[in-house]
Amino acid sequence: MKARAIATLSVLALAAAIAPLPGHAASGTVVNYDLKTREVDLMSAGEYDGRLRLRIAPDGIVGGTFMNTEGRTSFITGGLDGTKIWLDLGNSSAIGHRTYNGTLIDGKLEATAPGRGLHTWTLEGTPAKT
Predict the structure, then answer these.
(1) Which of 44, 33, 129 is nearest to 95 (CA)?
(2) For 117-129, b where at least 16 C-beta lie within 10 A, e where not — what string?
(3) Going residue by residue through the chain (130 aa), what tens digit of pLDDT does each one get?
(4) Residue 102 neighbours by CB distance under 10 Å
(5) In terms of Cα–Cα distance, which of 57, 124, 59 is closest to 89?
(6) Cα separation of 101 and 112, whole Å?
(7) In 10 A of CB 53, how many CB atoms?
């Protein structure tokens, strides 16, 4: 009897863990951002500019593209939790493939990624003027 009760509870717990929250995916709308960006490192000269187009799903999944000033494009993946964001920026970035962690507040992006040695790259994004 106990074995059957434990098995039943296990199945119910597993079903509850993998079941989607009611209305969670449909409760919000996809949010799009078009950001003018710059990548800088205080230990390096200059900056690298680009354009970041993000699509953020209601569940916090981030996707999009990054285009550098030479027209090279790469895909972006990431996630958003409240105002905290992480972005995996592809090789079209002048500094190569990086994972940035930071914030996205009112359409303004501020994030950092470790570089070699003492270098820390900062990615800043502000709404682009079309």
Answers:
(1) 44
(2) eeeebbbbbeeee
(3) 555 544 443 433 434 433 333 323 346 899 999 999 998 988 888 888 999 999 999 999 999 999 988 888 999 999 999 999 999 988 766 667 889 999 999 999 999 998 777 788 899 999 988 6
(4) 19
(5) 124
(6) 6
(7) 16
